[in-house]
Amino acid sequence: GLKMDPLDTLRINLAAFSTDYDDIQMTYRLGVVPLLFNAGVASIDGGEMELEFAPTEDFRLDLSVGYLDASFDSITPPPPFGPVTPTATATLDSRLPFTPEWQGHVGLSYTFHPGSNWSLTPRADLSYTDEQYFDAGNSPEIAQDDAVTLLSASVTLTSDDDKWRFVLAAANLTDELYPVAGTSSLTTASGYSEIIYARPRTVSLSVTRNF
């Protein structure tokens, strides 16, 4: 990794990593029952970059980019339970769950000073998450099969003595419909799949009083 301040107004953080994951836990199905085993070896490699630019005390730009290459190197077959052998849920071609290849974020804020005792800070955030799977078997029925781009914004009013703080925030402004988790048992006689979706557009107001 590397952390540096090439300018008084610029900070850059860089990181690269390589991970060998032994005895990774995977889910196998015995009928409709999910079972966990230390059943595989995986490699997780990637890199991250973070950038923060603040040309003035009031203006701030932050940006991040992340890359992941995650895959199974070997899979140990599940042990039999009496006469029954659990059904494997992953192959060497499967991608690890919850490992989008690319992620990114950019945020922008500016602080105004409308009065002698208050500051007002509007902020906008744009995030990107590449497609990803939610189970080791990479079931397409419960996958996030498209990249997701989200826009959020907020306005924060803060007293200079930090006793009062008001935040009006809006998440998922474009009201995107996208999955965040899921589970499936499609190889069993009672095959099913379940998927959980993120919240729609959400607006909130919070008030903080420090004593």
Strand-residue proportion: over 45%
End-to-end C-alpha gap:
40 Å
Helix proportion: under 10%
Q: Which structural category fits the helices and strands?
A: mainly beta
What radius of gyration results from the CA coordinates?
A: 23 Å
- Stretches where pLDDT is under 50 for at least 5 consecutive residues are none
User: Sheet bearing the most strands, described?
Assistant: 10 strands, antiparallel
Order of helices and strands: EEEEEEEEEEEEEE
- Counting DSSP H or I runs of 4 or more residues, the number of helices is 0
Summed up:
This protein has no helices and 14 strands. The chain has 211 residues and is mainly beta.
